[in-house]
Amino acid sequence: MEGTYEQSLEALADAGRRAAGENELDDALNAVAESLGDVVAADAVVVRVADAQGALYARSVVSRSQALAAELAGSSFTTSELFRYDGSADRLPGAVSRAARRGHAAEVILLPVAIDGQATGSVELFRAATPFSAWEKAAAAVAASQIGLVLRAAGTENGTNMDGSLALAGDALGAALDSGRGAEEVVRVAVRASGAEGALLWQPRADGSLELVASVGPSASLAAAAKPGSSLPTEHEPLRLEQSSDGSGRATATLTLGQPPLGVLQLVFGPGGAPSQRELERLGTFAVRAAQALRAGEHAQATSVELERSRALLTVVWQAIAELSLAHTIDTAVTRVSELLGEERVAIYLAEGNRLHPQAVTGSPAELAVAERLLELAFGPLRVQGMLHVTDAAADLQLAPVRDAIGDAGIESILALPLVAREELVGLLTIYLPRGRVLDPNEIALLTALASQVAVAAQNAQLHERTERLAAERKEALASERESAKRLRALYEISRSFAQSLSLDATLEAVTGAAVELLDADAAVIRMKGDRGDQLVPHAPHVADSRLAAPLRPLLEREQSIEKLPGRRLFRMGKPLVLDTVSARRLGASYELLVPFLEQGATVVVVPIATTAELLATLTVVSLDPSRRLGDEQVETALFVAGQAALAIENARLTQERKDFADTMQRSLLPRGVPEVEGLDVGAVYEPSARLEVGGDVYDFLTLPDGKLAVVLGDASGHGVAATADMALAKFAFRSLVRLYPDPGELLAQANEVALGELAGGTFVTMVCLTVDPASGTVRAACAGHPPVRVLGPDGEVSLLAPGGLALGVEADQRYESAETILAPGAALCVYTDGLAEARRDGDQYGEERLHAALSSGRELSAQALAEHVVADARAFAGEPGDDYAVVVIRRT
Question: Which end of the chain is less packed: N or C, by CB atoms within 10 Å?
Answer without folding.
Answer: N
